[in-house]
Design goal:
Uracil-DNA Glycosylase, subunit E; binds uracil; binds iron/sulfur cluster
Amino acid sequence: MPDADGKRMFDDLSLVLDWIECGRKRPARLRAPETPAAMPESEPPAAEIPAAGPSPADSLEAVAFEVGRCAKCRLAATRKRTVPGEGSANPFVMVIGEGPGAEEDERGLPFVGTAGKLLDRMLGAVGLSRAGNAFICNVVKCRPPMNRDPAPDEQAACMPFLRRQIAVLRPRYILSIGRVPTQALLAAKEGITRLRGRFFEFEGVPLLPTYHPSALLRDEALKRPAWEDLKLLRERMLRDGLRLPSSDKSDVSDKSDVPDKSGA
Ligand code: URA
Ligand code: SF4
């Protein structure tokens, strides 16, 4: 990277860090990496694509249509709307959460509540957006009642939709948001604290687990490691030659806009 670009990125990222830190003083040193819990990926080639290609006739629209009529698990009985996903049809990053909440269930769109707004700003901080270069969805496409975790059989019933979305979209990376999708995609039992912050692989796509924005809203101390994860993703994208818009400074420099801890 030319020096000027490097400096600009450093400045951008420093601004964002200030935002995430909510103006608190930065510790001089970053946390040392933990020992991997599950097996991390062995640096697959950047251009790797999902092993299973889509069937020629498959499309995002076809998946969304079938999701809309799906009754393969008990969540169909209590949902208001299905939430197949939203974003770029040619994404650098596919963001995968656990399942729709109340607002998502009302609107049929992923991550549109308080946690979703924070997610959008986290993504914006590293040059990603659902309007541009990211696709956002969940492991289950219907809301679990009372926001409980989706049950294993519900996750399994819905997983073919997610696999098809990955095959159609061929994202360069997956950002797995929180414990539930991370354990589901990696078939891991470790908690998110042990799994986050390093790349694994799902369907041939490099997968980075990080904390769920709801967790960041509950616990400020998680913002720093979450930010480290996003920086890691940005560094990887740049290293792999992806062209990213510069980080979303207008958003992140406005500290008054930092959400309070009113919940997700
Ligand atoms: N949390 C999630 O995991 N997914 C959403 O769509 C909204 C909140
Ligand atoms: Fe079908 Fe998935 Fe909704 Fe269950 S959660 S009814 S499998 S779309």
